[in-house]
Amino acid sequence: MLAVIGAAIAPGIAILSYFYLRDNLEPEPISLVTRSFLFGVLLVFPVMVLQYIMQNEWNWQNELFASIFQSAVVEEFFKWMVIYFAVYKHVEFDEPYDGIVYAVAVSLGFATLENLFYLVLNGVDIAFWRALLPVSGHALFGVWMGFYLGKAKFSGAHRLELRRLWMSLCLPIGLHALYNAIFLTTEYWFWLIVPFMLLLWWQALKKVKRAHDFGSKTLTSRPQ
Questions:
Q1: Are 221 and 161 in contact (CB under 8 A)?
Q2: How many angstroms separate the CA atoms of 218 and 13, rounded?
Q3: Over the stretch 50-101, which tens digit does the pLDDT of each residue have?
Q4: N or C terminus of the chain with fewer C-beta within 10 Å?
């Protein structure tokens, strides 16, 4: 059992550590990052209940649409809500890259408990693929969410802030939906998911750099 728990938790902690250590401007308090991670863990339970109700009580006509809505829309929406209400207006959210840190923390908290459930039911044989695909996927969707949350908070104009907040929700939902669709629509999913994940990592690293560049300008423009 300890091996299963270790295999389930390690990928999330490793990926979160990577993005946290990339914050070279004003690193966030470990306590707040940990709290965000735990919020993501707790979020699994209401999401699972809602998904169970939707799956068993709603009369879905299209299996692909049902899967995408229950997974991509529900999961990304609730993660976004947690970040917005728990962190977005917090005093420690004081530079654009912080959005990435907190969104990745919530996303990986969610992915880690979800991963633990999968490994308990299916064994550690799938741990490697779970780390590469679902756990990494949640983190990368979180990068997109956090990037636009960071830009939204420091937009300087209400209308621009609203537009970026909308993007911070819709883009992760779209990417998550595409991720699900790859698995559900073709038996050759491996040949599509590999370039898709590589593209997500490439874009995520670009967004990390852009958030840092934007953060540097934000910090230097503050009154001393």
A1: no
A2: 29
A3: 999 988 878 777 878 888 899 999 999 999 999 999 999 999 998 999 999 9
A4: C
